[in-house]
Design brief:
about 675 residues, 22 helices, HATPase_C_sf, phosphoprotein, Oxygen sensor histidine kinase NreB
Length: about 675
């Protein structure tokens, strides 16, 4: 984990992301899993993949469920901070405020000073967005005065510049913004903060009416944010540039800017920018007289606005409803517990009285019996003592004679039995050695027979595959010859007569269309019917059920995102299905595994396929690829993918495949 965070914090975040995805499948410690999920959440937050960042943050909180030490508390506070940032990026400021308040309370409770001021700073930023500038000023001044964190001080300078700008104190605003810019230019990793500073300076020039100066600062901010993949800041800058162009009635340029911002906002899930883009496009369409487009843009604008308001109201109502139902259930449980306790006490009291009476009667009866028995025992005891003394004297004499006789008999019997036992042991040891040699020979013969049978079976499968391929080639060749070849010959003949008969041009076009359809149908027929007619994930799960029913394997599988995976091209789905079949077959034949874990993720236009078993494994450096693994490598190479095999004896096998979906 230290190595992964080192990569992430030192500019190699892509490597950290890929290794974190791989490690998430192998880590067993809850703390390690929590940290990995948190790292993935930070990565997606950095590149404004908001929904993915929120998903991994909740996964981190879920895996941390029972970790209550200081590290667990710190992880919870960091998760609250990420949730607040992501909701701010989505435009859900009330939700962001809630997470910052929870994080500040938890930080103060556990003396996490740095994180406390981090959440205060985030809360101040949210107050600025909501128009509560006085509350924001108090929090920011507290951060500058008490915090030693340069990043927080930098952010406070930026926000103070923004607040004073909103109060038309542009000179004071520029003073704080200039301090912030100097801090950013000293550190190359503060590009996002630098963009924010430049945007605010541009806002000040915009407020005093210097449009050209404002546009020059906005263009500088846009260039830096694009170079550093700060897409959310780029969206903000695009909105400001578009607004200036709109106000100057440069409608064609403004339309291009807001259309670009809308597409990027939809891809990034930024509801606030998306809503503003629809509003500005509506205004531009009205000005141009295109009222149909204006109506459509306005409809989208109000739909997003209503969905944001409804989602926040529904969460508040659901929270109150859950609290009310919880209180009612607790009251009912307490009443039932009191009633059951009273019933139990009454029953126990009655049973105790009955037992007490029975014990008293039994004690009286036992006392009477004991008195009679004591008298009888006294008489019998005296008679027995006299008889025992006489018998003891007789027995002692007999015992001495018998002990002498037994000693002689035991010695003689021991020597008589010792000789044959030693002989039998020698014979038995020789027999065991001979039997062991026979068993070893039989085992070697059986292993050779099994290897021979496997090789015969593999040869049969290869021959059957070759026969199938030959038949398919013949079928394709015949189809190409009979249909496509015939059409092309006819088209050639028509072209030779076209000079004398120009009216045949339409017939030639018709024949070309027919030939194209035949080639298209032929290519589709090459795909298996089950691939063409079914969802990919359904086929994988159906195949898993078949394998589990016919073997003792347990197969765990997960997909993300299922809808996008089902939408992949059928050719790629067919390749992935064949790869999964080949890997499963190898595991059954060679690995002696009990569990298979398979994960298929589609993230950032890249397909990640992870396959892992707990079998005997093999030494990759000492093993040449067989037919199956060679076929898999060829399939992956066809799609410009990367295949990585990680295996060692007695440690299982891990297969990682990455296939880019865009060249």
């Amino acid at each position: 984990m230290d190595q992964l965070f080192y990569y992430f914090n030192n500019g190699d975040d892509t490597k950290a992301y890929k290794e974190a995805l791989h490690s998430l499948r192998t880590f067993k410690s809850k703390k390690a899993i929590t940290n990995t999920n948190l790292l993935l959440a930070y990565y997606h937050n950095k590149y404004v993949a908001i929904d993915s960042s929120i998903y991994y943050t909740h996964q981190a909180l879920k895996s941390k469920k029972n970790v209550n030490d200081s590290l667990g508390v710190r992880l919870t506070i960091l998760s609250y901070q990420l949730l607040a940032l992501n909701n701010t990026n989505k435009g859900l400021y009330q939700e962001s405020k809630k997470w910052h308040i929870k994080g500040a309370e938890l930080s103060e409770k556990h003396n996490e000073t740095n994180l406390y001021y981090t959440h205060l700073h985030g809360l101040a930023s949210t107050y600025i967005t909501l128009g509560k500038t006085e509350e924001a000023l108090d929090l920011l001044e507290k951060c500058i005065k008490n915090s030693n964190d340069e990043e927080l001080i930098l952010g406070s300078y930026i926000n103070l510049g923004s607040i004073y700008s909103s109060q038309s104190k542009y000179k004071l605003s520029n003073t704080y913004l200039q301090k912030a810019r100097e801090m950013c230019e000293k550190n190359t990793h503060r590009k996002q903060a630098l963009v924010n500073v430049i945007i605010n300076i541009g806002d000040n020039y915009l407020s005093i009416g210097d449009m050209d100066k404002a546009l020059s600062f906005y263009d500088e901010a846009k260039k830096i944010s694009t170079e550093n993949r700060s897409y959310n800041l780029e969206l903000i800058v695009l909105g400001k540039i578009g607004t200036i162009l709109y106000n100057e009635k440069r409608d064609s340029e403004a339309l291009l800017i807001f259309s670009n911002a809308l597409i990027k906002a939809i891809n990034l899930g930024n509801l606030d920018i998306e809503m503003n883009s629809y509003l500005m496009l509506e205004k531009l369409s009205k000005r141009k007289g295109d009222y149909r487009s204006a109506y459509n843009y306005g409809k989208h604008y109000y739909k997003i606005k209503d969905s944001i308001e409804n989602s926040q109201k529904e969460k508040e109502i659901n929270s109150l409803e859950v609290k009310f139902k919880t209180l009612e259930k607790e009251k009912t449980i307490k009443q039932l517990q009191i009633e059951n306790l009273n019933k139990t006490l009454n029953i126990k009291n009655k049973e105790a009285d009955i037992e007490k009476y029975k014990l008293q009667e039994a004690i009286i009866a036992k006392q009477n019996e004991n008195q009679v028995l004591q008298l009888q025992n006294g008489v019998e005891k005296r008679k027995n003592e006299i008889a025992l003394l006489k018998e003891k004297e007789t027995l002692k004499a007999l015992e001495l004679d018998r002990e002498k006789t037994i000693k002689y008999i035991v010695l003689i019997a021991f020597f008589i039995l010792l000789i044959p036992i030693v002989g039998l042991l020698i014979i038995y040891y020789q027999k065991l050695q001979a039997q062991s040699l026979v068993n070893l020979k039989e085992k070697e013969i059986n292993e050779q027979q099994v290897i021979s049978l496997k090789k015969d079976q593999e040869l049969k499968l290869i021959k059957a595959s070759i026969r199938g391929q030959d038949q398919e080639r013949k079928k394709i060749a015949q189809e190409m010859h009979d249909s496509v070849g015939g059409n092309l010959a006819a088209i050639k003949l028509q072209f030779s007569q076209l000079y004398n008969q120009p009216d045949k041009l339409k017939l030639i076009y018709s024949q070309l269309d027919d030939t194209y359809e035949q080639v298209r149908d032929l290519s589709h027929n090459l795909l298996p019917k089950k691939i063409r007619e079914n969802d990919f994930i359904f086929l994988i799960k159906e195949y898993i059920n078949t394998v589990e029913a016919s073997s003792e394997l347990t197969i765990n599988v997960s997909f993300y995102d299922e809808e996008k995976i089902n939408a992949l091209s059928k050719i790629l789905q067919n390749e992935l299905f064949s790869i999964f079949q080949e890997l499963t077959t190898n595991t059954i034949k060679y690995a002696k595994a009990t569990t298979i874990d398979m994960q298929l993720d589609l993230l950032n236009e890249c397909l990640f396929f992870v396959y892992e078993d707990d079998g005997v494994g093999f030494d990759v450096s000492m093993t040449t690829l067989g037919i199956g693994l060679t076929n898999i490598k060829n399939r992956v190479d066809t799609h410009n993918g990367v295949l990585h095999i990680d295996s060692k004896p007695d440690r299982g096998t891990n297969i990682n495949i990455e296939i880019p979906l865009k060249s």
